[in-house]
Design a protein that fits this description.
Largest sheet: 8 strands, antiparallel, barrel
Number of strands: 9
Strand content: over 45%
Structural class: alpha+beta
Shape: globular
Order of helices and strands: HEEEEEEEEE
Helix content: 10-25%
Length: about 160
């Protein structure tokens, strides 16, 4: 009898986890990317870079760089080259004042987190956030503030 109860409990727990994971995937992919209505190409700029080292020290450097977030070609164009977007999705965090976040994972293991400046997108189409890269040497992490606006079409 105890084995049957344990088996039933384990089976129910497994099914509940599978349904929850499936629901999370539907929430992620079902609504699309909230940045797309404004543009598939975005002009982005970085601000200061925070570099944290293994000894616990973190330093800030002025590092202003431009890049283009191009969902149409599934790449990010940096001054030194193009990096493929591995995946991107919308995420909504429960009880967060931020309406929607977009996570963009790059092929070189950098991660770009963006959220709309104006949740209703009535007054601004800009998105802000950070680009982070975890490392494994003396430097453990680099993070930069990011500001993106829809790319103006070139005429």
């Amino acid at each position: 009898m105890q084995k049957a109860v344990l088996f039933t409990t384990a089976l129910m727990s497994t099914c509940a986890l599978a349904m929850a994971a499936d629901q999370n995937d539907k929430q992620r992919s079902g609504t699309g990317n909230p940045m797309w209505p404004a543009s598939l190409k975005w002009d982005c700029n970085t601000a200061a870079k925070i570099i944290c080292e293994r000894d616990g020290r973190c330093t800030t450097t002025e590092d202003h760089a431009d890049f283009i977030l191009d969902y149409d070609d599934n790449i990010v164009e940096f001054g030194v080259g193009r990096i493929r977007i591995k995946r991107h999705y919308q995420q909504t965090v429960q009880d967060s004042p931020l309406q929607q976040e977009v996570k963009v994972e790059l092929a070189d293991n950098r991660v770009l987190w963006l959220t709309a400046v104006d949740a209703s997108r009535t007054y601004s189409e800009a998105w802000v956030g950070a680009m982070s890269e975890l490392k494994g040497g003396v430097v453990l992490m680099e993070s930069e503030g990011v500001y993106c606006t829809p790319k103006k079409s070139e005429k």
